[in-house]
Structure formats: structure tokens, C-alpha cells
Amino acid sequence: MAEHDDEMLSSSSAVEKHGASASAGTAILPADPFENPGEPPHRPRRTDVDPKKQRLAERQVATFFYVSIICSILSVAAYVAFPIQQNDFGTVRTANLFLGLAIALALLSMGLGAVYWSKTLVVDREIAEMRHPTRGSETTRAKAVEAFQLADKESGFSRRKLIRNSIIGALAAFPLPGIVLVRDLAPAADPNELLRHTMWKKGTRLTKDPTGLPIKASDVTLGSVFHVIPEGLLQKEDMLEEKAKAAVLLMRLDPNDLHEPKGRENWQYNGIVAYSKICTHVGCPVALYEQQTHHLLCPCHQSTFDVSHNCEVIFGPASRPLPQLPITVDAEGYLVAQSDFHEPVGPSFWERDR
Fold first, then answer.
1. What distance in Å separates the CA atoms of residue 5 and residue 126, rounded to the nearest whole number?
2. Structural domain boundaries in the chain
3. Mean pLDDT over residues 185-204, rounded?
């Protein structure tokens, strides 16, 4: 018991001394249990000590880049050699297979070349770089230029002409597939002329989409809207291409609500008007009709057209009204076109000079 009491007294004294020191403002800090081990010893690579290995690695890197060039060219060749035939999904699969493989190998070879270059030839010493808290001064910018020059020296980009020329060639060749594919999307003829003419002509009946049934004027009630295609469209081989130009919206308004411009008074029939369904912004299908306001809304970018005022643009990015199709009725009471559209359908950018 006496020894236990002595230990408690000793502990109490130590606590009191510690409290007194703390109150006096003296902090007792524990010794740092970890020491900075420093950087591990640098292990030189084979290419660092053997010039033959260095030259071999340089040739291997260049080979990857040359393979990328070849694959980029092969992708263009595959696009030409395996054309896609309409309604033949076998040609779609074949073209996509060879085109995708060539582009993937071009990108993979370029990536492998860059990685192998950095692993074998770029200087691999570990460095610690201090970050400055504010935007650099002119001196700092000069240092940055110096750092780029040092990186160029250490990577050997300027000195290793074989690698430099091969990677430049690979980077120049890689965009070729995209350029060829995107360029081939443009029509060979003038888009303005292609979109200026559709299937509509004098006497062509207006038919319902997608049934192809002709529409009588008596079937179009006040406030109704019909999705319309020209008669005979469903029998054409290039039906989708022609429909993309000739699709029409048919509506009936109170004739007193129509404000037709001069020269177009006879383009409608008893309040029935027909306008192109293709938005003049980027060609989306205009399909939302507000019966009370007589507004047509494009769901893609919210361009809004006023049917009662010749489909002029009242909101959104579209820059011109929807083209109007002149209509009338034939001897049997069916709605027919008086002519084709008098202006190109679709996006306004087609009308610009190429």
C-alpha cells in the first residue's frame, strides 16, 4: 500500500508540473517519429546506359507512329472500298467493322508510341516543383520558356528527327478519316438546288402521313392539323430523302384570322393553309400546333411560327418563315398543290454561298 501511495503521489506531482508548464505557456511537443527518407536511388534504364538500346527504342517508337499513319490511310481506303448500300445492313456492318478497326488501330498505335517514348527515352528523374501562389511575372514566364526548352532537350524531340517526323506524320494523318467521312456527308450538287425542288408539282394530291390517303377539303375541320406527304411518295425508292424535303403541315383557320401577304391570297383554300414541316433553323420537324394562338412550335430549339401571319418567326433562332405550299382543290374536292414551293425548304444556311 505504501508503494502504491508513493506512485500516486509521484503521478500527481508530474501532472501538477505539466499543468504549471502549460499555464506558463511552454508547450511540450512530441519528437517527430518519422524521418524524411528522401528520394530512392535512381535506377538507370537500359536506354540510359546503352546507346544501341536507345537507338532501338527510337526506331520502335517511330514504328508505332508510322503504323498509325498507315492505319489512318487504310481507314480512308476502307471507307471507299466498302460503301454502304441502301437497305442492305450487311454492307453497314462490313463498312463499320473495317472502318472502326482501322481508326482504332491508328489511335492505339499513336498512344502506344507516345507511352513507349516516355518510358524509354524521356528523362525519368524525380523532381519537386514549388508552386507559386500568384500569376507569374515576366521573369517567371521566361523561366517557363526555359522549362519548355529543357523539356525539349530532355525528351530529344528536336534532336531525335526520326521520332519527331514520325509523330508529326501520325498527327497529320489521323484526322484524315474524319475529314473524308464528314466531307462525304455533303451532297455533291448545290444544296440550294437540291432543296429548292421537291416532289410537289401542279395537281399533286395532298395525302395523309403515313397512310397515303388523299385528303378532301371537307375533311379538314376548323382548328384541325394534318401531317401531309405528296401522293406517290410511299412508292418511291428514295422515299425518306424525298419526305425529308416534302413533308407538310396542313391546318384550317378562320379565313378572317389569316393575314396573307400580297400575291398569296389564293395560296390557301377557305382558310386551309399548308406549310413546310421542316424548320428553317436546323431542319427539325415542326409538329406542335397551338390551336388557339395559331402558333407552330419546333420542339428542338423552340422556334415559334405564327400561322395566321404567313408562318413568320415570332420566337427562337429560326431566321425566316416556313415556306408555304400553294394549294387548291381538284374537280373531286381533293386538296392538290398548285405548284412546288417557291423557295428552298429547310435550314437557311443552305441558301448561303458555298
1. 59
2. 46-124+143-183, 191-351
3. 77
